[in-house]
Design goal:
Length: about 110
């Protein structure tokens, strides 16, 4: 049974795992300043990071949560996933392999 590339129906694993994974990755990119601040604080604080980096951790959580709770952001990530899935169903080649450059000299 061949799958229709244009099919928009999502399985539970796609809704609950794969799309949220894309959301996490994109949110971390968009909150990169907060991620950098928190990372820097943790590196500088060592064992005491739990106590010393509360402000940076709160700022990071706030930024990420804003994206996770944004329905428009979910739809954006869902459309990106559906586009990748459609391309995979057409070509049979996963996105990661398609994006890898072919060797120039053989």
């Amino acid at each position: 049974m061949a799958l229709d590339p244009a099919d928009q129906h999502l399985r539970h694993v796609e809704k609950d795992v794969l799309i949220p994974k894309i959301m996490r990755e994109k949110a971390r990119e968009r909150c990169s300043e907060q991620v950098q601040d928190f990372t820097k604080c943790c590196k500088n604080s060592g064992v005491l990071m739990v106590v010393k980096c509360r402000k940076e951790n709160s700022a990071l959580k706030e930024c990420l949560t804003a994206y996770y709770n944004d329905p428009a952001f979910y739809e954006e990530c869902k459309m990106e996933y559906l586009k990748e899935r459609e391309e995979f169903r057409k070509t049979g080649i996963p996105t990661k392999k398609r994006l890898q450059k072919l060797p120039t000299s053989m």
